[in-house]
Design brief:
Length: 720
């Protein structure tokens, strides 16, 4: 007989560590239906009859974030056989707030009192027996990081779940003060829909709190709504607060009373983590320390480990070992040229593009997993929230933006650390605006040709990326779909501790696997498509890449679409095709321009590249070309990551359209205004550029829509 056990707890309580330790490789990662909140299912590796569901980390069962709604909807609709509530024993008072809500759901709760090794090390004392009696549920002391007592926890959970299946009896867990309890009892007694509902207490409390989702979920008559409203008004008069505030105070009062009696701290005052935070989160030192740490992460990833390994994969493993041996074998076997090209340039080349990304991503994910497991990532979000909030983004949005300077793919995937769904979507839309390592080849090309001697061109591209993030954040946040301030940054800063190698390996493996399977499939298919277009003429005859490709299907497509870019100054088919191929990977933009022009494959710093760029571009059109390719959809690998993280075709297309329109309009203004400043004539497109500028100014300074619409949009996202 299968038993379903849900794991619930605050972020940073050790819930994911416990889940990984209990399930090992027997887990499946996906998304909850219709939302981008990660879902983990698994089976207990020592008892296959126990299925574990790792719920999102939450602080309460309120309806304000998708994580909270997803968690409580699962618990109410699916009604698992038991809940293991993972509680950080070193910060027990804060964690037990969620416990009081879980205990009201009519589902057996087993408290996994985690980090007991830290409690013992600090010399703190917890009266487990008295705490168990006060909370009315089983408590098991564990250390998820060290694997202490976790098997006993599962034995207790199985026993409790089996007993509940047999009897259906739930011990009433706690009561608030008599005044609050009287209001709850009156709602239970007077709302017909609650009388035979096993979750009657939880629903009654939510009705008292005026939870809009609960009012719609159960059948409450107009008379019953009027009765509840009068109770709330009476409570407001007597207790000088609304229903939600009254219940919140009552929960904290209950938790404070029970912990005050049963938890004794050996040391009063600052802990070691507090002392570290006095420096790390200091208003003056926090940003320089953060910049130093992230520079070190970036330096190790790109310069020390990631890029050298990626170069070896591309230049040795793919080019020499795979393509070289495959080419030699096919030549000796007399394989047809078109088939040899398909295998070498299309299939192996496409797979090689994925493998080339992988070392960089693995190194970056390892370093980020270490920072996350140590507890520093929480501090980064806390530090930057104050700054990014001014631009409509939360503090957690800065990490993906920064990572995007190395590679857009891990930058987009790093948005998983952002709990709020709207903030996550917004960050995905803007995180790729920064120049990634691939885009620096285009910067280097123009810096060494059209803008030679102008030192400001390179930094200008980076500042343009930062400006694009800020402008987009302000504008998008003022649309009805993203209306409202960033989600309140309520979070618990975990204690610092040494990282668990199991957590680091598991996190890196899961994220890298997702990239290879999903983003890799897209880039492989795209590479095959490009190969076909490059090597088949408009008469549908095969020709190799060494021949003149001006009559290929690709060139025909380029000539057809090139008029679109005339207002941007690079309306020739070579620049058009290069930009289009940049959607596959920005690394191929410079080389593609050289090959298609008949010059031959080029590097960003050689004479051919300089001659090519000088011939095709003016300073104004070169700047517009650079800005368009920097702000446009970064590559197919990034598009695959966007599709994965958005978990919605609609939002993926919205992101692609926004980035394309934004890139086009910014590049339009750059070219038209630069041309005008350099003595060019005022044209119709110059007038259009001024209209676009006025539109952006208007969007930047209009007032935000009513922030209350935010909740409505979150509900709609859940129902998609």
């Amino acid at each position: 007989m299968e038993l379903r056990i849900a794991l619930a707890g605050n972020p940073n309580s050790g819930k994911s560590t416990l889940f990984n330790g209990l399930t090992g490789s027997n887990q499946y990662v996906g998304n909850w239906p219709g939302v981008t909140v990660e879902k983990k299912d698994g089976t207990y590796k020592k008892d296959k009859s126990l299925k574990l569901i790792d719920l999102p980390g939450i602080y309460s069962l309120s309806p304000y974030t998708l994580e909270e709604v997803v968690s409580r909807d699962y618990l109410l609709k699916e009604s698992p056989d038991a809940i293991i509530n993972v509680v950080d024993a070193s910060n027990i008072e804060r964690n037990l707030y969620l416990t009081t809500q879980l205990a009201e759901l009519g589902i057996p709760v087993i408290i996994a009192l985690n980090m007991m090794d830290v409690v013992r090390k600090n010399g703190d004392q917890i009266n487990i027996k008295a705490l168990k009696e006060g909370l009315g549920c089983e408590i098991v002391e564990i250390s998820a990081l060290k694997g202490e007592n976790v098997d006993h926890l599962m034995d207790v959970a199985k026993k409790v779940a089996e007993e509940h299946q047999k009897t259906g009896v739930i011990t009433h867990v706690h009561e608030f003060n008599e005044e609050v309890e009287s209001y709850i009892r009156q709602i239970e007694d007077n709302v017909q829909a609650l009388r035979d509902n096993k979750n009657h207490r939880w629903y009654a409390i939510k009705l008292f709190e005026s939870d809009p989702k609960i009012e719609d979920k159960i059948n409450v008559t107009s008379d019953e709504k009027e009765f509840i409203k009068k109770l709330q008004e009476d409570a407001d008069d007597k207790l000088d607060d609304d229903g939600e505030g009254i219940i919140t105070d009552a929960r904290y009062e209950f938790v404070t009373n029970i912990t005050h009696k049963n938890v004794k701290k050996a040391k009063e005052g600052m802990t070691t983590s507090d002392k570290i935070d006095r420096i790390v989160t200091n208003r003056i030192l926090a940003l320089p320390i953060f910049a130093g740490i992230m520079f070190l992460v970036y330096f190790i990833t790109i310069k020390v480990l990631g890029t050298p390994m990626s170069d070896w994969v591309n230049d040795v493993f793919v080019a020499e070992i795979l393509q070289g041996n495959a080419g030699a074998w096919m030549d000796s076997a007399g394989v047809a040229p078109w088939l040899a090209s398909l295998v070498n340039d299309g299939i192996i080349g496409g797979v090689g593009a994925v493998l080339g990304f992988l070392p960089l991503i693995v190194v970056l994910f390892i370093l980020l997993a270490i920072l996350e497991d140590v507890g520093y990532m929480s501090r980064i979000a806390f530090i930057l929230d104050r700054i990014f909030r001014k631009f409509g983004l939360s503090g957690k949005s800065f990490i993906p933006v920064l990572i995007g300077t190395g590679c857009s793919v891990p930058g987009i995937m790093a948005t998983r650390t952002i709990e709020n769904d709207q903030d996550r979507r917004l960050t995905i839309m803007v995180s790729s605006f920064m120049p990634c390592s691939a885009k620096t080849e285009i910067i280097a090309l123009f810096a060494g040709s059209v803008f030679t001697g102008r030192w400001w061109f390179g930094p200008l591209c980076y500042f343009a990326g930062i400006a694009a993030v800020i402008v987009s954040g302000i504008i998008i946040k003022k649309t009805s779909m993203f209306a409202g301030d960033p989600a309140p940054f309520v979070m618990e800063l975990p204690q610092y501790h040494f990282p668990s190698y199991r957590n680091v390996i598991r996190s890196t493996y899961d994220r890298s696997k997702a990239f290879v399977i999903k983003a890799g499939t897209i880039i492989l298919l795209a590479a095959l498509g490009v190969w076909l277009l490059q090597n088949i003429s408009v008469d549908f005859e095969f020709h190799t890449f060494d021949q003149d490709s001006k009559d290929s299907i690709l060139s025909a497509i380029g000539k057809f679409f090139s008029p679109i870019f005339i207002p941007l100054g690079f309306g020739n088919w070579i620049a058009t095709v290069a930009s289009a191929l940049g959607l596959v990977a920005k690394e191929v933009v410079v080389g593609t321009m050289g090959v298609l022009s008949g010059i031959g494959e080029v590097e960003s710093g050689d004479a051919n590249a300089i001659a090519l760029a000088t011939r095709l571009f003016t300073p104004a059109s070169a700047m517009a070309f650079m800005i368009f390719n920097q702000l446009n959809v970064p590559c197919f690998a990034a598009l695959g990551a966007i599709r994965t993280e958005m978990n919605s075709a609609k939002w993926t297309w919205f992101t692609v359209i926004y980035q394309t329109v934004f890139a086009y309009t910014i590049a339009l203004m750059v070219y038209q205004f630069s041309s005008l400043a350099l003595g060019g004539a005022f044209t119709v497109w110059t007038g259009v550029a001024f209209v676009v500028l006025l539109a952006y100014i208007y969007l930047l300074f209009i007032k935000k829509p009513n922030s209350s619409k935010r909740k409505v949009k979150e509900e709609a996202a859940l129902q998609e």
